[in-house]
Amino acid sequence: MERGKMAELESLETAAEHERILREIESTDTACIGPTLRSVYDGEEHGRFMEKLEARIRNHDREIEKMCNFHYQGFVDSITELLKVRGEAQKLKHQVTDTNRKLQSEGKELVVAMEELKQCRLQQRNISATVDKLTLCLPVLEMYSKLREQMTSKRHYPALKTLEHLEHTYLPQVSHYRFCKIMVDNIPKLREEIKDVSMSDLKDFLESIRKHSDKIGETAMKQAQQQRNLDNIVSQHPRIGGGKKYKKDVCASSDLEVKNTSPMSEQDSGILDVEDEDDDEEVPGAQDLVDFSPVYRCLHIYSVLGARETFENYYRKQRRKQARLVLQPPSNMHETLDGYRKYFNQIVGFFVVEDHILHTSQGLVNRAYIDELWEMALSKTIAALRTHSSYCSDPNLVLDLKNLIVLFADTLQGYGFPVNQLFDMLLEIRDQYSDTLLKKWSGVFRNILDSDNYSPIPVANEELYKKIIGQFPFQDPELEKQPFPKKFPFSEFVPKVYNQIKEFIYACLKFSEDLHLSSTEVDDMIRKSTNLLLTRMLSNCLQTVIKRRNTGLTELVQIIINTTHLEKSCKFLEEFITNITNVLPETVHTTKLYGTTTFKDARHAAEEEIYTNLNQKIDQFLQLADYDWMAAEPGSKASDYLVDLIAFLRSTFAVFTHLPGKVAQTACMSACKHLSTSLMQLLLEAEVRQLTLGALQQFNLDVEECEQFARSGPVPGFQGDTLQLAFIDLRQVSLCVFVFCFSFKMCD
Predict the structure, then answer these.
(1) pTM of the model
(2) What sequence ranges are listed for the domain Exocyst complex component EXOC6/Sec15 N-terminal (predicted)?
(3) Which residue of 109, 245, 695, 738 pairs with 629 in a disulfide if CB–CB is 3.0 to 4.6 A?
């Protein structure tokens, strides 16, 4: 029972489930029916479900059939009505078609006109849009065209301004256009192009000023020279004026080939000779010779582009390179003054340009940079001048170099550069100049001494007499009273040497001009140089002439006379130096001239040479002595050689008239003593083993001749028998020998 009930319950549940599934199938969309059917096949009663499904389908078919039967008559009626409507519709269609055809035919022109109107409206709208866009684009294109025109005409700075205006004002308004994008892309290239072109102009400018630095420097130095000329006109320095006046007096009085022998000609080749300069000519400034606009343009361009520091570094680097090239002197610079002048012009031109840039470029270069360059230039310039000036042996060139250096220093000092080291170096060159002067004047003195005839200067008239007196400070009242023709006691080399010493002094003075030295320093320098001239050069020349083999007694006597007069003239040289330096000799630390010592030493050497030459002449005569010590009878007079010797001594001592008395007396006494000693040696020499009374009597005659010469007073000034005492020993020896021989003969 229970099983039956259980089966019945399961059958009821299955039937209910199948009913639910069928309802669900009927009410569910076909796309979603899959899960429902699947639930049927998942169970075991799908056969029963299929039966129910078939039953449900049959029920629905019956209902459809009932519904179709119920509405069939209405369907037939509807079909009939539709057939009637179709006929009317055909008629209406034909009428509409005809009407449409007529309308199309009639409206064809209107359609064409409407199409034309449409096109016109479209064009009008496009034109209006185009005008609006062009209104925005044309200023951009105009600015771009203006930019290109400015770049073509090399107006780079305005072009850069235009480019900035174009980029920030105009292009943003039309940035969506393709040509604007092209312009935007080209802007960096245009900036680089402007930078490159402006840098190219700067390079051309740097190359140009490198080539024309000497012209710029020459112009600046001319300006400095003109300023100095104006300053000299406003206030003349009394010392320099006095020196020039004295110079004219010296040259006016010089004669006797002084002009030909002077190493310093009247017209020096120095650049400071202002007479040849045209003071009225206006010299242009550096800004008139150089167009600095490329520098300013390039500086502004790089400043606008934010690359000012890059530009400054490049400019300074290039100028440093150019400075090193400018400061490299040519190897042959020392040969001519033009070499030095070109070297200085280039340096001045370089720093004139830099000074102008410093004051006009608003920071392109600064004072520290200029000072650094100047320190380098100053050290290299001084080193080059020391090296090249050491090769110079011409005092005229050294003097011209000094004048050029002074002008160089004054020019740069006018631009604010310190030049004290240049003036310190000039003091070094001054020593070299003194050495070259000494060498030059040594040759002058040698020429004067070699060409002198060592004879008193004859004068035939008053004019020539005054001319000599004008050349050399000589006063002799007795000579003035003598009638013409007459002779000065000294030879021609006295006024020549005296004037050359003055020429040397003035040459030393010329170097000291414009060195900013005090009068005391100038005086000290002149005196020291003059002392070197006297004690070294002139003294050596005199000693050379005195020691020369072919210098005779007459020449030696004249040298003694000449040096005596030159010694007396030293005080006039002192006055000459005082007049041109305005420093009194009594000033403390004033150097004294050593001329007196120089001429005394030369005179003493000449005296010694006279004594030596006299003794040599006496020895030459004594070599002719040929005593026959075995002669039976003496001769009737003194030996011929001795007679000739005495005659020579008389003529020689007659020349000693103008010598100082002591010199003539010493020479005479020395000669007599030497003669006495030599004769005694002849008598007592070892080869004389025997002699006769006749030979002794002949020797006695010779001794008497010597004593007679001594008694005759060949040189005035001896007291009593002083000169005869030179032969006293000879007399005594000869008497002893004579007495001995006579006694020996008597014994026989």
Answers:
(1) 0.65
(2) 52-221
(3) 695
